User: What shape does this take?
Amino acid sequence: MKPVDTSFCLAHLLVCVNERHGSSLPSCANKDAEAIYQRLRDWIEAHGMLSRIWLTRTGCLGWCHVQGTTVAIYPQNIWYRALTLEDCDRLIAEHLEPLLR
Assistant: This one.
């Protein structure tokens, strides 16, 4: 086992793209999760930050059943639920753009 040097990572965003099969419970996949992931990735890539701002698709982060897409931002320990595609610009402005400075 070898530890990973994460000192160059400014933030790690976890985007739930969970899709429930055979369940009546809602899931993030039904709430534009993949489009949200892609919007964030496009911004990160456009700013040349793929190696400094990490983005990971995840399974359920525990809030799918409430209202949809969940995003967690670490190491800041910020969580959003019910995130919409329209919310991405605000998330970017508040949490990603400051990392470019």
Notes: The mean pLDDT is 92. Strands lie at 11-16, 53-58, 71-74, 78-80. The two ends are 34 Å apart (CA to CA).
